[in-house]
Design goal:
The structure is a single chain. It is built from one helix and ten strands. By secondary structure, it is mainly beta. It is globular.
Amino acid sequence: QVQVVESGGGLVQPGGSLRLSCAASVFPLENYAVGWFRQAPGKEREAVSCISSSDGSIYYSDSVKGRFSISRDNAKSTLYLQMNSLKHEDTAVYYCAADLAWDDTVQALCSTLLRIYRDWGQGTQVTVSS
C-alpha cells in the first residue's frame, strides 16, 4: 500500500503561485507512475498532470498547460506541482498518486491512475480568491 502526504496548499490571489509537494512512501520513485489530481466542490476528481515511469514523459490537462509544471525528486521520493498564474477555477483539493500502473501513452496513464487508484491521501486545499 502506497502512502502519500500532500502539502503546500493555501489561499492565493488570482495570478499568484503555489508549489505543492507530495511525499510518497515508495522508492525508487522513478519506477512509479506519478501524478496530480484535483477535485473542486461539486465536481468529480480530474487529472491535472502525470509523469510516466517508462520514459518520463509528461501529460498536462488543457486547463493547466503552460501554467503548471510537474517534477519529482527521486532521491527524496517527492513529487511537486508548481502552479503559476492561478485562476479562480483552479480552486480544489489537490491529490497526488504513485502507482506501478502503465499505459500506452502518458495521457492514457493519467486516466488509468484516476480510475484505479485507491491509496488517496488527505489532499491539500488550494483556494484562489481575491
